[in-house]
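Thanks for the sequence, V.! I ran EAL domain-containing protein right away. Repeating your input here for the record:
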Amino acid sequence: MNGPPPDPLSKASGEGGGTVPAELEAAARDGSLPADIRRLLARAADALRAASADVKDAQTRYHALFHAVPDPVSVIAADGTVLDLNRAGMAAYRRPRHEIVGQPIHVLNPDLPEEHMGPVLEALDRGETYVIEVSNMRADGTRFPVEVHSAGVDYDGRRCVVAVARDLSRRREAEVRYHDLLEQIDKGIVIQAADGSLLHANSAALRMLGVGEGTAVPRDGSLPAQWMALRADGSELPLEEYPSMRALQEGRVVRSTVLGLFHREQRRLLWLSVTSIPHYSAGGDRPDQVLSMFSDVTGLKRDSALFDRVQALASIGGWEWDRASGQLYLTREAAHILDRARAPDSMDAMLACLQAPDAARLRQALADAGEATGFDLDLQGQRADGRAFWVRVIGERGRGVAGSALVTGTLQDITVSKHGEHTLRVAARSDPLTGLLNRDAMLAEIDGLLAGAQPVAVLYIDLDRFKLVNDVLGHAAGDDLLATAAQRLIRAVGDDGQIARFGGDEFLVVCGCGDDPARPERLADAILDAFAVGFGFGNDEFVVTASIGLARSPEDGVDAQTLIQHADAAMYESKRRTRNGRLAYTPALAQSQRDRLQFETQLRHAADNQEFHLVYQPQVDLGSGRLVGAEALIRWRSERLGEMRPDHFIAQAEGTGDIVRIGDWVLREACRQVAAWHDDGLGIVRVAVNVSYRQLLGSDLMASVRGLLREFDLPGDALELEFTERVLIEDAPETLGNFAALRALGVSLAIDDFGEGYSALNYLRRLPIQGLKLSPMFVSGVPDNQSDVAVCEAVAGIARSLRLALVAEGIENEAQRRFLLELGVPVGQGFLFAPGLAPADFAKRL
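Predicted structure:
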């Protein structure tokens, strides 16, 4: 089309801009015509004048209504051409009318398919309104979501479509804020449909109810089978009395209802205060959803009932026993005094903590307790780790309530006054942090067992990743973790062995195995299971597993020191292989360790013996295939051991600290080769070199790089240094200073294998990083593995947001290259283009 069509209403007025033709006016006044003819012509002129005025009014109303609509309105021809646009549309798209009218609809909706008008016209032919959500585009290229309602219209005699676009930006923002609020609020929130089925539960609700992924939730709105709902008086609450069900049935808000949830398997009671609010859809007379908000009031309900009575009875540690149900409740201090791995929840469990004669005395006192009589007893018990304790137990039946089944009282630890000397003796044998045996006590225990001529097994336990928690969260959190780990060990070992903290994050378990040869392995497996659950610190959770080494007498040693040494060696090998496992000592293991020592020796001298060399893997433009740089990769061909895998010897060098010296060699050799290529007329090739975190901290990296650039007369941008994600969380001031100095030299800095480690964005933005490298771990799964696709998309988004360069590693096929290119990754490397090449072969590629 050459321009926008005229307004169809303007044609109704005829020629001359809608005025009565002059000839008609003159004829009506012509005296030569008969009078009746003149009157007829005069009436015709009046009628035409009135019709013209009506057309002008209609046109004026059309324009007023068309431009008064607050949403963008467009008239579109059947072929998709925009015929008209109101003022709201011009404002929304930030374009003048002439840039849109006469243009295809793609100027506003560039994402529409070519045949987009077909479904619209089909819907209109059926007498329906066509509704779709799309993204519209402004003049500056920015997008905004809209909901478009389309209807048919006869425009200038043509079949056209009128489309009204409603901006959804505010609604989307409101939805995001609503979702964020649900997830951040510390109240549990559950949304159910009218049939009671679960629609949504926020994180707080799942945490309070202990519902994990995969837990089956009944469709009728009832609780999972392991839970039982209770009224405030302890009786079972039927489904129809749930606050949510009442809100749906009665159509009103049900406020602050206290109900209990009893976990049948865990025998855990949880009290909640629940408010349920029904939701009505527009025009509905019955609720179609119900929102329930609840908070945990277990402590308030239990402690408030105990407060007055415990206060009257000296308030040391409170307890309450319900004779009818057999349920026992302990205050936190009372549970602490008994010092069990699991606080007793019945009177029988509490009596089991006492010596048999004293347990019988307390049982009799409970039976004799009446409203007017109580009891006051000093009792001796034994803690889970075998230590003796003394408690003073005071109790009486509930006063003022006829037939009360409750007996309440206090619990006071009097161990110090009863056994001061014994306590000191025990303390001398105990680790002060965990309460376990200490090193000296455990050595004495092993010597005693060996003197009895029975087979003994030693389990040497080291906590995996403990150093990370200790470094990141501090020593206080590390101490808490050790104390919690000790309790898990106590539960796992039980009465089958003795436990000691042997130092740092290392523990020792010793057990006799003459009557049960499989006991050491069984204990080791129980310990591994005990550490399968992560350790919580505030809102964070850390996975800290255990590596265990086993040694037995007499085959692995006949004295304490030898057994411990061999168990330690087995533990070290287990940690080196897989972590979170157990391994028994064998002579072959000892030989393996000697071989590893030889390996370390050969590695330490490899650079001096000129056994290292570098290969260079090309980095290419994924669109054009043009070579844009290279990554220097170290290779080791040992004269005695042969060709060695890089991941093997680099990990070994990291552990021994040799990586610093090896890294310095790699830097020098890479700079020398870049200078050699330049001297051969091949230009400056930018080479990426991996730098260990130990190398960053253990040497003056900045001074070394500056000296190499000066020595080989290279510009700073000829070198890119790649670091692991560890630098993102360990950004000590010296790290920040080193990075700033390297950037001042013009050296590029990148994070290698981004996404595998910590990926802390807060730290990423604080360091002067120019690029990220997408790990081959995730590249290998695209485009078929949705998890890997999601990670790649997330990393690409991070790189775009922070304006960082992005390189993909490990590209092995064309499908991966196409996916990454479409994702916006500009540069890649991998076997699809070339493996690591010798310098001469790389020069040919140049």
